[in-house]
Amino acid sequence: MIEVPVDLGDRTYPVLVGEGARHELAAVIPPDVRRVAVITQDGIGVAVDPGVEFETFTIADGEQAKSLSTIETICSALASAGFTRNDLLVGVGGGVVTDIAGFCAAVYHRGIRFVTVPTTLLGQIDAAIGGKTGVNLPEGKNLVGAFWQPSAVLCDIDTLQTLPPREYRSGMGELAKYNFIANRRLDELPLDERVAASVKIKADVVASDEREGGRRAILNYGHTLAHALETSGAYDIRHGEAVAVGLVYAAEVAHLLGRIDAERVAEHRRLVAAYDLDAHLPSGADHHELIDLFSRDKKALDGVTFVLDGAAGIEVVTGIERAILAEALEKM
């Protein structure tokens, strides 16, 4: 088992990575917890034992479950079942489940403890780490949420063996992002070390900027176009697939701005292809709609805001002209 701490002072918590990590759940439940509410989805099929009395609550499948109505439903169910501030939530599933569990934990009784057991590659290397929770609005992804850190995260590599191929590849899109943030060849590591390395990269960024006041925004590398593709609703695309396209697009924007050279753009395309991901826009993509959606992204600060590669590494760039964005889309 590999243990990676997320260093937040008196709120520091462990991320355990390895085969069978979910079986450590009882060991990370604080001793004063009386009851546990396990939040999951019907299709997850991963059993956990918190070692105390527990009740299971299921949410709908798919991204549509990330809504304020789901938060209300779960919180009402918790209240009806008599859960108190001394109890604890456990989210077992992908990013949708861990986001819902974390947001419920942040708002129920104004904050209770929670643990996540992410069962997808995307969840293990990104969604479950760092305390960002949120749900979607019709106007955009993750526009309503809270920062609420878990007590522990258990990344069980065994749960990845049963993922559908497309779901597994989707996680590779986020993994590709970490290659560029850390400027490391993570694709050369064994799976458990690759997951742990990604967790360490994110943990270091979170420890330096917990509430996204500055540096943490680099974790959104590739996400501006990705979120636009997802918000549009017109394309059959998973989050990690969209991030992979967004990484190459961000490289093309950075190249047009003179921040990186053509060789660096080619490296983005090579890595995305190495993870068996497509770097092209979906067929029939509406360029004008996508550019309009860029300004709705939650990290937009001063006009259109992108996280871009450059000589100083990955950083936030604001005020990019529409003509540049349109030209880069043509290259996709």
Tag the structure with descriptive keywords:
single chain; alpha/beta; Rossmann fold; Dehydroquinate synthase-like, alpha domain; 2 domains; 11 helices; 39% helix; globular
What does this structure look like?
This protein is an alpha/beta fold and 332 residues long. It has two domains: 2-163, Rossmann fold (3-Layer(aba) Sandwich); 213-330, Dehydroquinate synthase-like, alpha domain. 39% of the residues lie in helices and 19% in strands. It contains eleven helices and eleven strands. The strands form three sheets. It has a seven-stranded mixed sheet, covered by helices on one side. A two-stranded antiparallel ribbon has the order 7-8. The protein starts with a strand and ends with a helix.
Mean pLDDT: 93
Q: In CATH terms, what is the architecture of the largest domain?
A: 3-Layer(aba) Sandwich
Largest sheet: 7 strands, mixed
Low-pLDDT ranges = none
The radius of gyration computed from the alpha-carbon positions, rounded to a whole number of angstroms, is: 19 Å
Which structural class do the helices and strands define?
alpha/beta
Count of strand segments: 11
CATH topology-level name of the largest domain: Rossmann fold
Distance between the termini: 41 Å
Q: Summarize the helix and strand pattern as letters.
A: EEHEEHEHEHEEEHHHHHHEEH
What level of helicity do the residues show?
A: 25-40%
Q: CATH top level of the largest domain?
A: Alpha Beta
Strand content: 15-25%
Note the overall shape: globular
Count, helices: 11
**Into how many domains do the coordinates divide?**
2
The strands making up the biggest β-sheet line up spatially as: 1-2-9-6-5-3-4
